[in-house]
Amino acid sequence: MFKYRIFGLNVKSDIKLDCYPAHFDVADVEVRTVNKLDKMIKSDYFYLHNDNEYYLSISNVASFKISNSNLIEVLPIGDNSHSEIELFLLGSVFGSLMIQMGNFPLHGSVVEKNGVGIALIGDSGAGKSTLAGAFVRSGWRVVTDDVIRYLTEANVRVYPSYPSQKIWGKAAEYLSLNVTKSDSVINRIDKYYIKSKDRFSNKNVNLKYVFELVPQNIDKVKIKSVRSSEALSLMINNSYRYKFIEVAGKAKGHFKCISKALPYLKFYRIYRPIDEFTMDEQIESIMKVIEV
Q1: Residues 135, 16: one domain?
Q2: Could you tell me if residue 169 is inside a domain?
Q3: Rounded Cα distance, 191 and 45, in Å
């Protein structure tokens, strides 16, 4: 069995993963490969059997069962690759696990510098990972890509995911990142894994700022603060797999989770030109409103 620290959880897995290795006696989560599941569901489908049993099936990749907030069973399907299973396991499956735990993740990336975290959220294609990659050029490091697990106590604490980031080919070229066909993300056209370890942070960070990226038909980058009355809906709209949350009947817990975090965060919206690389301008606008 392999041992990892993923999203702040001690994970024991019989699948080798490209994650941070860890040493522990007691696991929070176990990932186990199986030959069959007690329920079979149709492909590309999320199914809630009860509060403690979720099922997720991905066409020609694998079916997954998430149980009791501490067990993930993996049933490989067809002629798949290890990379395909890992892609969905570390994304949708761990996201579903967090929902089952009552810990509702955001969809986006987090970068950090000097222990201060910035969340970059927005719709798919908004440029979250690309902007995170540009921040790395400015001395920041990526804490998590795609799924943001956070907990609120005396502050909003974000937990690192794994030392890998997915970036579009044109963005990689713009950022002078060398990628090859072997780095391609399975089933994604012209998207690549970036895995240089020095780009990533494996430390928990204090999240202070949330920036929603909004592509628009405009000439230059604009940034506006988000009123507190809008912040709740902004967080809800950018939650990871919100439809899963609705199906699981956890909308009330989700509302409470977000409401608890709001007082600790400052929110902004970045409007950027469509189909233009304006990362430097976006970073310049962000640096004018934050304190690091």
Answers
A1: no
A2: no
A3: 24
